[in-house]
Sequence to fold (373 residues):
Amino acid sequence: MLKVTFPHIGNSYIPFRTLLMELGVEPVIPPPITQRTISLGTQIAPEFACFPLKINLGNYIETMEKGAEMILMAGGVGPCRFGYYGEVQREILQDAGYEIDFLVLEAPKTHPRELWEKIKRIFPCHQPHDLIRALRKAWIKADLLDQFDRLANHVRARELKRGQVSQLQARFYHQLDQAVLLDEIQRVARQFMEELKDVPTRKDEQPLRVRLVGEIYMVLEPNVNFHIERVLGEMGVDVERTIYFTDWVKDTLLKSIYDPNWRAQMLAVARPYLKNFVGGHGLETVAHTVEAGVNRYDGVIQLAPFTCMPEIVAMQALPAVSQDLDIPYLTLIIDEHAAEAGIMTRLEAFIDLLSYQRNSRGGGKTREVVSGY
Ligand code: SF4
Fold:
């Protein structure tokens, strides 16, 4: 059976495992990202390549060590470098002496026939009913993960016993990953959602509300963003992540097929500060920060990989958004040199500042910031 791998990004390995198994190939799950992954990637990548590209390369080397024979990678078009990722990564690996097949999947609207030919060639179970079953199961898992994570961030900010939500989340991921049949998947999700709703919480607080914006990889991959959602949540901050895997699929892959103006609303929101789509999530970063200001969030945190063009463009707009709408923001630029202590110090200082601002405005009671990470 063909052994297929893919880049590690957040919890998406759970639906990807299901998808590949249902399509009749053997998934090789990339191990969680560690310093070794980063160092393997940075050794063979150009210094100024995007940080996610370097991490992907490290993932591939680690999965080749586990026997992977083919890499499945999303492709794309647009102003940022993501569209070239597949080809560039293939050449970098080749130059470094690694031989492996690449399957770059473009959005269906670009070359639908080519996409279909690739699917038929690679996947033994490629009849329409196989594809529908595989996609449906994977989608249900992805959607349940996103629903759980949304609620988990909300509850974590209020939990009485620090760490309880994170432990529950880890158990949920594990059991959902193991579930094969549809009713088993639904049962696991129901059980964990109920447990999450039953986590004892503080009722007398109004936690700080912070939006997490930025480049998709940095936002979704906890081992790269220093587990920012967990860390902030356990400081008593209600984190609203603005990027979810299923939203990205719905918007970037699907909505863009039938609605060429699907970004119109986002452009209208960002318009005073940014007038064009700039690739990646740069436009979203600005628009979501504007919305955060209008809706009186306490702050915004932008996560950007070093050398990320769309996020660099967004960074130029954020000071004006922040000043006009009185919304504090913090930009964290992350690369292979980022150190946990430095990131935590900046986060704690930012949250302290937001608490101070909330209290001086006479807003609701917040939890005293818990440090020590
Ligand atoms: S969004 Fe940024 S990090 Fe991602 S590929 Fe584009 S330039 Fe690179």
About this structure: The chain has three domains: 3-125, 140-156+159-200, 205-373. Residues 140-156+159-200 form one domain. Residues 50, 52, 80-82, 215, 279-280, 305, 308-310 surround iron/sulfur cluster (CB under 6 Å).
